[in-house]
Amino acid sequence: MDTTTLIIGAAIMLFAGIVRGFSGFGFSAITIGLLSFFYQTKEVRPVILMLEVLASVWMLRDVWKDVDWRWVMWTFLGLMIGAPIGVWALAYLPDATVQVILYSAIFILAVTLLLQQAGIVPKFTAPDWVVGIPAGIANGLAGLAGMVLSLFLLSSGRTAAIMRASMVIIFFLSDIYSIIFDAGFGLIGQMQLQMMAYFIVPMLIGISAGIWIFRRTGERNYRTFAIGLVLVIAVTGMLRLVL
Predict the structure, then answer these.
(1) What are the φ/ψ torsions at residue 239 (nearest 5 degrees)?
(2) For residues 59 and 6, what is the distance between their CA atoms, to the nearest angstrom?
C-alpha cells in the first residue's frame, strides 16, 4: 500500500468505526464500498471481516446485557446456510457481477422498508432462520449481512439497544464462520494481514467514539439514523453501478 492509500484507508476506518460503534452495523458496507475504488472486493473483504471480529470483541462489554439471544441463534442458523454460497460466488464471479447483485438487492430492500414505513406495503415477516439465509449470502459476498438484517430488525419493533447489541453478536459469529471459508478458498494472504494491522487502531478509535455517542443520543435517534444509513449506502452503490 502506498502512503496516500494508507492515509485514505485510515480515514475510512475511523469514520466507519464511528458508524459501527453507534449503530452496530454499517462498517463493512462503508469500508468495502470505499476501498473498492483501490482494490477488488475479494482482496479487501477478508480484511474487513477480520476487523469486524475485533470490532465485535471491542463492543462486547457495552452490548452484552441487551442481546436477543433467541434471534441471534436462529438467524445464525440461516447465516450458516447462506454464507458458503456467498463465498463461493465471491471466489468465482467477476467483481462487477458481485457489485450488481449486492447493491441491487440492498436498494430493493431499502425501498421496501420506506414503503413499509409509509404503510403502502405490509411488513414482511419470516422465520428468523429464513431471514438469515440472504444475510449469509450477502456476508459471504462482501460482508454486508448488516444491510439485510438491519432492514428486518427495523421493522420488528425492537428497541435500539436490542437491535444494536444483537447485530454485534451475530456479526461476531457470522464473520468468524465466513473467515474459515475465506481461508479455505485462498482469499487470505500476507497482503490481507498487513492491511488489517494498518487499520486496527483508527477503527478502534472510531468505535469508541461511536459508543460514546450512542450512550448519549442513541435511543431517540437510532431508527432514523439506521434507515438513513441503509438508504445512503444503497443509493451510493446503485450510482456506482451506473456511472
Answers:
(1) -65, -40
(2) 25
